[in-house]
Amino acid sequence: MPSSEPSTDVVVERTLIQSSATVFPTSPRTLADVREEVAQSLALRMITKARTVDGVRIGVHFTFSKKDDGLFLRLVTSHIRARLPSSRYLFAIATTGASPTSRGTRSGARTSNALVICGSDEDDVQRAVLLASSKFLGRVDAVQNTGTLLAASVRHIGSSYDDAALWDVLSKSVRTPIDPLLPPPGSRSIDQLLSDARSKLERMTPRQAYDALHDPTYPMPVFLVDIRPASQRAREGGIHGSLIIERNVLEWRFDPRCEARLAIADRYDLKIIIYCQEGYTSSLAAASLHELGLLNATDIVGGFAAWGAAGLPGQIRPPSTISDEESYQISQPSFDSDDVIDGI
């Protein structure tokens, strides 16, 4: 979650109370003094907690909305600049919550908060501007770009998405250009992705899947799901009784929190057995369902081709909870169908 700072107004109030307890203060502190102190403290905290990417300090920070948000954030950036005169850095600072000017307005009124991106290198800042523009589509009300500093008004900023998006923007903006023929640091090959996905699964052979689908004592509902595209199903055949849910909508159909889910996807312990043609795409798909919390999702080793090679029937017992026939359909021709067309 984004980090936050107490409101400047709160700090001012606390400071004034403390000051009132002092007998005959020699130099009474003003609001400007307190704002200066808070800005300096915030700048120091950002520098201290900064990450380093390719030798560049980067950091993202969210603070509660204050009066004159833009001026306050510029004050913070001036302290960062003063403390890092010869270092390369790129920071993003934003205010969150209802701004003082929008408090008390009618419900649903637009509320914008300040976002400032500052850096020591103009190229870094301008790359960040381009990347950030794609992260906050439709939410930016005003922009002022001065080269090494971007000041913008962004609606409803402060969510976990915004925090992750700004970290992504800064990280990509300062990375050293690499050889386009070499894999970027941290990237993984498809073999690694597949291996990582399968490490999460209790994969099933075609026979194990068939037995689980026909076991009346199985401790949870079991569904067989065909994620292949229509052209491949038409060419290769299918298994009667399986659910046809193509790969591009799988997560939306099985996430119990999603409005577009199937009626049967109302619990997290479902045993969802996915198959594709040869058992590769299905592993990635099942691992994706694990990310949604469906930890019993798995796939068939070897896919539909292995099912046919094992001599298993081209039909299974249909799901016993068909309560929304328009949300999905029972599968098309069985694996021994002669209906073959061109396709994937």
Question: Your description of this structure?
Answer:
It contains 11 helices and 11 strands. The chain has 344 residues and is of the alpha/beta class. The strands form 2 sheets. Strands 1-2-3-4-6-5 form a 6-stranded mixed beta sheet, with helices on both faces. Strands 10-9-7-8-11 form a 5-stranded mixed beta sheet, with helices on both faces. The radius of gyration is 28 Å and the shape is elongated. Helix 1 packs across helix 2 (31-48) and helix 4 (122-135) runs antiparallel to helix 5 (160-174). Helix content is 35%, strand content 17%.
Helix content: 25-40%
Q: pLDDT under 50 segments (min length 5)? A: 321-344
Task: Compute the separation of the termini in Å.
Answer: 43 Å
User: What global shape is seen?
Assistant: elongated
* Radius of gyration using CA atoms only: 28 Å
Largest sheet geometry: 6 strands, mixed
The portion of residues forming beta strands comes to 15-25%
Structural classification:
alpha/beta
Q: Please count the helical segments.
A: 11
Major β-sheet strand ordering: 1-2-3-4-6-5
**Order of H and E elements:** HHEEHEEHEEHHHEHEHEHEHE
Average pLDDT number = 85
Number of strands: 11
Task: Note the topology.
Blueprint: H1 8-20, H2 31-48, E1 51-53, E2 56-64, H3 69-83, E3 89-96, E4 112-119, H4 122-135, E5 140-145, E6 149-155, H5 160-174, H6 190-198, H7 206-213, E7 222-226, H8 230-236, E8 243-244, H9 250-254, E9 271-275, H10 281-291, E10 298-299, H11 303-309, E11 329-330
Parallel strand pairs: 2-3, 7-8, 7-9, 9-10
Antiparallel strand pairs: 1-2, 3-4, 4-6, 5-6, 8-11
Protein name: Rhodanese domain-containing protein
Organism: Suillus placidus
Pfam families: Rhodanese
